[in-house]
Specification:
By secondary structure, the chain is of the alpha/beta class. The chain is built from 14 helices and nine strands. The protein folds into two domains: about 30 residues; about 350 residues, Metal-dependent hydrolases (TIM Barrel). Helices cover about 45% and strands about 10% of the residues. The strands form two sheets. Strands 1, 2, 3, 4, 5 and 6 form a six-stranded parallel beta sheet that branches. The longest helix is centred in the first third of the chain and has 30 residues. It starts with a helix and ends with a helix.
Length: about 375
C-alpha cells in the first residue's frame, strides 16, 4: 500500500508539473501558429517605404498567453523585439476573459469557460478564477509589468496627451513602440455597469460589446440568440460614450451593430475582421454595416486570418483591404491582425514588410499605404481617446 501511495503521489507531481509547465506552451504553440508565407521576399521599394511608416495594429491577444513579452519568443506572433523589428508604432493589447468550449463562429453558449483552465495552468491569482472583471484587471497588470520591464521601450497610451508626447519622442527615437489596452467582450464587466469605472482606471480604452456568446449587454455574431443591445447594453453604450471609452463592434451580432449605430454619439471601431462582400461569413461586416460604421467617423481593422479575408497570404489580406477601401474609402480602413488570437497568420509582427509589399503589388500608392498601415488609426485615436 505504501508503494502504491508513493507512486500515486509521484504521478500527481508529474501531472501537476505538466499542467503548469507544459500545457500553456503547448496551447500557445497549437493555437497561435504562424504559417510562413511562401511569397518572394519584400522588394527594396517595399522595405524602404515600410521603414518610414507609423504602423498601428488594432488587435492582438498576446497578454493572454503568459509569454515574457520583453524577449523574442518562438511561439505566437507578438513580443517587444518583433514589434520593433516590424516597425510597429502602436499595438492594441486586448484582454480575453472568457471563451466557450468548442469555440466556433456559428453558435456558442456561455455555459463553459476555457479561460478558467488557462488561468489555472498559468497560476493566475485566485481572485481571477470566478470573476471576469478581475481577469481583465490582472491582464492590465501584465501589461503594466511589460511596460516596466521594457525600460521605456514600450510606452502606455491612455490619453491624447500620451499619444502626442509619444509620437514626438518617436520622431527622434525610432526603436520604441506603444500600447493601448482593449477588452474583447463586455462580459468582462461581470454584468455590472459600475465595473466600467475600475476597468477604465486600469487603463482600458476600448471594449467590444460581445465576443463569442450572448450576455447581459449584447448579442454576439456567434451567440445562440444573436440579439441586439439589451436595456443594460444601451446604458453601457451611453456610459462608454460619456467616458470616451471606444466601442468596438468586432464579434457583435448584426442586430447589435444596428442598435449601436442608431444610438452612439461617438465614432466606433471594428477592430479585427473583414467584409462579407469579399469573404462571406457571419463573422464579417456587410457592406451596409461598414457604411454605417464609417459614417460615425470610425475605422475598420482588416484581419490577417482566413475567416477574415478568405485566404492565408499577404496577397489575400491586401485584396481584402482593396475591397474595404472600395466600400468605405481609404480613410476608414486600418490593420486588425488578431495576432495571438487563436488564429493562424501568414507572418508575425516582425514580418509586416510582407504586407507593405503586398499592398504595393495590389496597386496602392505610398500615401494610401501610409494611411492604411497606421495614419488612419492614429487620427482616430487622436480624436477619440480621453483628453
Amino acid at each position: 500500500m505504501k508503494k502504491i501511495l508513493q507512486f500515486a503521489a509521484a504521478l500527481l507531481v508529474i501531472l501537476l508539473a505538466a499542467f503548469f509547465l507544459v500545457v500553456p506552451a503547448v496551447l500557445d504553440s497549437l493555437f497561435n501558429r504562424v504559417n510562413r508565407s511562401t511569397a518572394a521576399p519584400p522588394s527594396q521599394t517595399a522595405l524602404a517605404l515600410h521603414e518610414n511608416l507609423r504602423i498601428v495594429d488594432l488587435h492582438a491577444d498576446a497578454l493572454l498567453w503568459g509569454r515574457d513579452l520583453s524577449k523574442r519568443n518562438e511561439r505566437g506572433a507578438v513580443d517587444l523585439p518583433r514589434l520593433l523589428d516590424g516597425n510597429v508604432a502602436l499595438e492594441v493589447f486586448t484582454a480575453v476573459t472568457k471563451t466557450p468550449r468548442g469555440l466556433n463562429y456559428e453558435r456558442n453558449d456561455a455555459s463553459s469557460d476555457n479561460i478558467f483552465w488557462l488561468a489555472l495552468s498559468q497560476r493566475w491569482p485566485p481572485r481571477t478564477w470566478g470573476s471576469l472583471t478581475e481577469r481583465a484587471l490582472y491582464l492590465a497588470e501584465r501589461f503594466d509589468r511589460a511596460v516596466a520591464e521594457s525600460h521605456g521601450t514600450l510606452v502606455p497610451i491612455r490619453s491624447t496627451r500620451d499619444l502626442a508626447d509619444y509620437l514626438q519622442r518617436r520622431e527622434k527615437q525610432k526603436r520604441i513602440t506603444a500600447g493601448i489596452l482593449g477588452i474583447e467582450g463586455a462580459q468582462a464587466l461581470d454584468g455590472k455597469l459600475e465595473n466600467l469605472d475600475c476597468l477604465a482606471d486600469a487603463g482600458y480604452r476600448y471594449i467590444s460589446l460581445a465576443h463569442f456568446y450572448d450576455h447581459e449587454f449584447a448579442g454576439s455574431s456567434a451567440g445562440v440568440q444573436k440579439g441586439g443591445l439589451t436595456p443594460l447594453g444601451r446604458e453601457l453604450v451611453r456610459r462608454m460614450n460619456e467616458k470616451k471609452i471606444i466601442i468596438d463592434l468586432a464579434h457583435a451580432s448584426s442586430q447589435t451593430i444596428h442598435d449601436v449605430l442608431a444610438v452612439t454619439t461617438r465614432p466606433v471601431v471594428y477592430s479585427h475582421g473583414g467584409l462579407r462582400g469579399n469573404c462571406d461569413n457571419r463573422r464579417n461586416l456587410t457592406d451596409e454595416e461598414a457604411h454605417g460604421l464609417a459614417r460615425t467617423g470610425g475605422i475598420i481593422g482588416i484581419g490577417f486570418w482566413s475567416t477574415a479575408v478568405c485566404g492565408e497570404s499577404p496577397a489575400a489580406i491586401a485584396k481584402a483591404i482593396r475591397y474595404a477601401t472600395g466600400i468605405v474609402g481609404i480613410d476608414h480602413v486600418a490593420l486588425g491582425s488578431d495576432f495571438d488570437g487563436s488564429v493562424h497568420t501568414p507572418f508575425d509582427a516582425a514580418q509586416l514588410p510582407e504586407l507593405t509589399d503586398a499592398l504595393l503589388k495590389e496597386g496602392f500608392g505610398a500615401d494610401e499605404i501610409h494611411a492604411i498601415m497606421g495614419e488612419n488609426a492614429l487620427r482616430f485615436f487622436r480624436e477619440n481617446l480621453p483628453d
